[in-house]
Specification:
The complex is a heterodimer of chains A (751) and B (156). With 751 residues, chain A is an alpha+beta fold. Chain A contains 20 helices and 27 strands. In chain A, the strands form 7 sheets. In chain A, strands 10-11-8-18-15-16-17 form a 7-stranded mixed beta sheet, with helices on both faces. Chain A has a 5-stranded mixed beta sheet with strand order 13-21-20-19-14, sandwiched between helices. The radius of gyration of chain A is 27 Å and the shape is globular. Helix content of chain B is 37%, strand content 12%. A 5-stranded mixed beta sheet of chain B has the order 2-1-5-3-4, with helices on one face. The mean pLDDT of chain B is 97. Classes of the chains: A alpha+beta (751), B alpha+beta (156). The interface between A and B is large, with 64 and 62 residues.
């Protein structure tokens, strides 16, 4: 297997926890290897991220996947800043699966909006380390102190006139000790970080040359499609492939535990043949599952609370004493990710080993899926990471890769498996279904005194191995243990209940004296997984709709009510104050427009949004969204703006229209006609303000999403008096036609 | 079957009903045109056939014989970009980038038919192309920017 030639230093690097910089760069006994490599190639491989090429260009190995979030640009910026070259001299490559690259809680993974938070330390450290070796090399050659040398534009300089290009220093630099604590630039000295606005990957993405997983071609490759059953987990019973086998190019048609694989020389031959395969299916794991019934059962679940995930004071007592009490139930459906690039992978299985080319968010998880499918060791699976046409959490799971591996093993050739869009939607790992029951209490002065939230949801992960088996159907056992260990490490919690079900509730920044947050699990056989912003995608809707209801019950301005309940000087206060100015909050909106506000703190980033909404012929139309974000230092401010825009639009698709419904185990949505994605004519104008900060970067890929559904629902309430508490909102509005502003409480409003 | 793709004649041995998308991707090795839905719902596979935008996933290759097919690869010759591509760069449009070839091909056809489109006309023309990353506001700006650039170039 062709291991990366730059991988040889990997073993020298310790892996570390997600929140600490436990990576050391090189060590003494690898110097001989480094020197030999430099002498034979002219390249300085300073550490596992940075190689200085003889022409002075920098090869940067990014241990994250580029799924559109801009990590290639961000990491190139961090590298260029510290090493001292213009960003266009950085060449990004994506790291293959490597033990040394498992630096995110022992996983090599892209998720949790962590890339900049991690890279801000690791990439800068790696680049500064390489730079110090180059500077030390020049200083020793010139016999001058390092302190008299400067660097920049890919050169080391010694005034008045000596200078050497980085490419000419590689062999000497390889002989320098690896600095244990290279000096990083101070924030005030940044010339690229916070000031770069272009993307390094844009050109290839507009001229057709960018290579995604689906574009991979390897010698001897066959192409395949997989026919999946109507019900998740259904296995083929009978297969009549006589007619299909007569199609030109067909190599093999065979039943697997996943479905019926059709392998041909070309993909067009595989899909043509697949149309002539007649399959009957055994009952699937989710047979009998009905989302209408499930949602009703969750709504009617009458336990007052579940496993407590956060408690302060006594919410029960405070509710008893409250002047005004409110109760409401918020609901959200299953959702699929539907990234534009359908699920695909290319795998070559040979001699008990597998080589994978895949658009994956996690090479480690891919190794686990393939290892389990083939019955081999994870270390015998090498994963090459390609560009991905969107991820949103779906590509953190590698079921399609396991299926491609099984195909390759069977036909003894490399196989590229491409799912249909219908398989993508019906064979998903879905955003969990939720019901969140909220109770709130207000004192006579209008201050909130009690907040109780009980999240009933299918769980993405449980801290109990036993429950996990039921909660994570479709995921290999080895993976379950790894996922749980990693999640526990990542969130430093061992609480019962779910790690995600109440995120965004249990960390409420509202200064309310009595808070009780709890979770109850729902178990089905339908696989669920992270979906952009994970639990926050629902808890943001519930928390920020309910605080709006409390504000109205207190007869307070919704933005002022929020501001009154957050700490002065906090990120929440900063964002709300800026948002009020940006959106000119307090000025009357145009006739027919309702304004709603919402904010949410997720992935350590605070985002506030104001939505201007109208209803045209019964259709919710979001005209404009104002967005303020505090994500610490914005490495590339325009990428941050783009991620806010993207999070808002992704969130609007879900807020307005999307739901996965299931009847007798069968997912009813099969393509973009029934699982609609927001289109251009419905996209609002979006005005984003990125707050200045000198704090380390926090997440941006996900935090733009959680506030938008509540901002829109709150705007609809302001416009119509109808409080929509179930997602998607358009369905709720359609069903509520004729409703007037409630004067007496039913399940909400002031009591 | 002979096809005219990006100004070159290629000879392909495929049944006439084979979708043009897969002929381009697998027989002509032009992978810039993307598969998204297979049902003409998302626009990722948009190419021009005799100048008109077509969903290549539902267009039979046999119906394109003797017609001029243009894909993203044929839109410009590196390093010079088509004004629409240039506008896409200047507005930092792409995120994951997967849908952008289809978006650009649709925008080029729009501007050929309507060199100075309004926001509404842009929405009408571009709404058949899905973007899951949410680049729509930037696409709208980029189309306007490209229209200006094309007008300036035409005035010279």
């Amino acid at each position: 297997m062709d291991m990366s030639r730059r991988g040889f230093l990997g073993g020298a690097l310790a892996t570390g926890g997600m929140l600490t910089l436990a990576v050391t760069f090189g060590c003494g006994n690898k110097n001989a290897t480094r020197i030999h490599h430099a002498d034979t190639t002219g390249e300085l491989t300073a550490n596992m991220y940075i190689t200085v090429m003889p022409d002075g260009r920098i090869a940067l190995t990014v241990n994250k996947a580029e799924i559109g979030q801009g990590v290639a640009t961000g990491y190139a910026t961090l590298c260029a800043e510290e090493i001292g070259v213009p960003i266009d001299r950085i060449d990004v490559k994506y790291a293959d699966s490597q033990a040394a690259m498992r630096v995110s809680s022992n996983l090599q993974i892209t998720g949790g909006s962590t890339s900049m938070k991690e890279g801000f330390k690791t990439v800068r450290h790696a680049a500064a380390s390489a730079r110090d070796m180059l500077v030390a090399a020049a200083a020793s050659e010139w016999k001058v102190p390092v302190s008299e040398c400067t660097f920049g534009d890919g050169k080391v300089m010694h005034a008045p006139k000596r200078e050497a290009g980085y490419g000419d220093l590689t062999k000497l630099a390889a002989r320098q000790p690896v600095p244990s604590k290279p000096k990083l630039k101070a924030v005030k000295d940044f010339t690229l970080i916070g000031k770069t606005n272009n993307r390094v990957d844009a050109r290839a993405k507009i001229n057709g040359t960018a290579t995604y997983g689906i574009d991979v071609s390897v010698p001897g490759m066959a192409s395949a499609t997989m026919l999946h059953g109507p019900v998740y987990g259904a296995k083929p019973d009978t297969v009549d492939d006589a007619a299909a086998r007569k199609h030109p190019g067909v190599i093999d048609i065979f039943a697997t535990k996943y479905g019926v694989a059709v392998v041909a020389e070309k993909y067009w031959q595989a899909i043509a043949a697949a149309r002539d395969v007649v399959v009957t299916w055994k009952a699937g794991a989710t047979k009998g599952l009905d989302t209408d019934k499930l949602a009703a059962a969750m709504r009617d679940y009458d336990a007052e609370d579940g496993a407590v995930t956060f408690e302060r004071g006594s919410a029960g007592k405070a509710l008893g004493k409250a002047q005004t009490k409110l109760s409401a139930i918020y609901e959200a459906p299953y959702l699929c990710h539907a990234p534009m690039e359908p699920q695909n992978a290319t795998v070559s299985v040979k001699g008990g080993k597998a080589e994978v080319w895949a658009p994956t968010q996690s090479p480690t998880i891919t190794q686990a899926f393939v290892a389990e499918a083939l019955g081999i060791d994870m270390d015998d699976v090498l994963v090459h990471v390609t560009l991905a046409g969107g991820g949103f959490g779906r590509r953190a799971l590698a079921d399609v890769v396991a299926q491609a591996a099984v195909c390759s093993k069977r036909v003894k050739r490399p196989v590229k498996l491409v799912w249909s869009r219908e398989s993508d939607m019906t064979q998903g790992f879905y955003r969990p279904i939720y019901a969140i029951k909220m109770d709130g209490g207000l004192a006579a002065d209008g201050h909130a005194t009690a907040l109780r939230a009980h999240a009933i949801s299918q769980l993405i992960a449980l801290s109990s191995q036993e429950l996990l088996g039921a909660a994570l159907p479709g995921i290999p056992n080895a993976m379950k243990n790894m996922v749980v260990d990693s999640l526990l490490a990542m969130f430093s919690t061992s609480s019962v209940g779910d790690l995600f079900a109440t995120e965004g509730l249990k960390d409420t920044p509202y200064q309310i004296g009595n808070v009780l947050i709890s979770a109850s699990p729902v178990q089905t056989k339908l696989p669920v997984a992270s979906w952009r912003s994970v639990g926050n995608s629902v808890t943001g809707f519930a928390a920020e709709s309910f605080i709006d209801e409390m504000a109205h019950a207190a007869k307070a301005d919704p933005l002022a009510f929020r501001r009154k309940h957050v700490k002065d000087g906090s990120r929440q206060a900063r964002v709300l104050d800026a948002l009020a100015i940006l959106a000119k909050w307090g000025t009357a909106p145009a006739l027919g427009i309702g304004r709603g506000v919402a904010r949410h703190f997720s992935f350590e980033t605070e985002v506030g949004e104001v939505a201007d909404v109208e209803i045209v012929d019964g259709r919710i139309k979001v005209r404009r969204v104002y967005c303020v974000v505090d994500c610490g230092i914005a490495v590339n401010p325009d990428v941050v703006r783009a991620q806010m825009e993207g999070g808002i639009i992704f969130g609007l698709s879900a807020a307005l229209d999307q739901e996965i419904t299931i009847v007798d185990g069968v997912v009813q949505q099969r393509n973009y006609d029934t699982f609609p994605v927001l289109r251009m004519f419905e996209a609002p104008e979006i005005i984003v303000q990125v707050l200045e900060s000198d704090k380390d970067p926090t997440g941006v890929g996900e935090p733009g999403l959680p506030p938008i559904a509540a901002a829109v629902a709150n705007a609809i309430f302001a416009l119509t008096g109808t409080r929509l508490r179930r997602l998607p909102l358009q369905r709720g509005l359609d069903e509520s036609k004729g409703n007037k502003r409630p004067t007496a409480a039913t399940d909400g409003g002031a009591k | 079957m002979k096809l005219q793709v990006n100004g070159k004649t290629i000879d392909v041995a495929v049944p006439a009903q084979t979708p043009l998308l897969w002929v381009l991707r697998e027989e002509a090795n032009l992978t810039g045109t993307k598969f998204g839905c297979g049902k003409a719902l998302c626009g990722a596979c948009t190419v021009h056939v005799d100048g008109a935008p077509k969903r290549s996933c539902v267009t039979a290759a046999g119906d394109c014989a003797d017609k001029a097919i243009l894909t993203i690869e044929g839109l410009s010759t590196d390093p010079v970009l088509h004004p629409v591509q240039q506008a896409w760069l200047e507005e930092n449009v792409p995120q994951c980038g997967y849908c952008q070839a289809g978006q650009i091909m649709t925008a080029v056809a729009l501007l050929r038919a309507n060199p100075q489109p309004t926001d509404t006309e842009i929405d009408d023309a571009m709404s058949a192309n899905l973007c899951r990353c949410g680049t729509y506001p930037r696409i709208r700006r980029a189309v306007h920017r490209a229209a200006e650039a094309l007008a300036k170039a035409g005035a010279k």
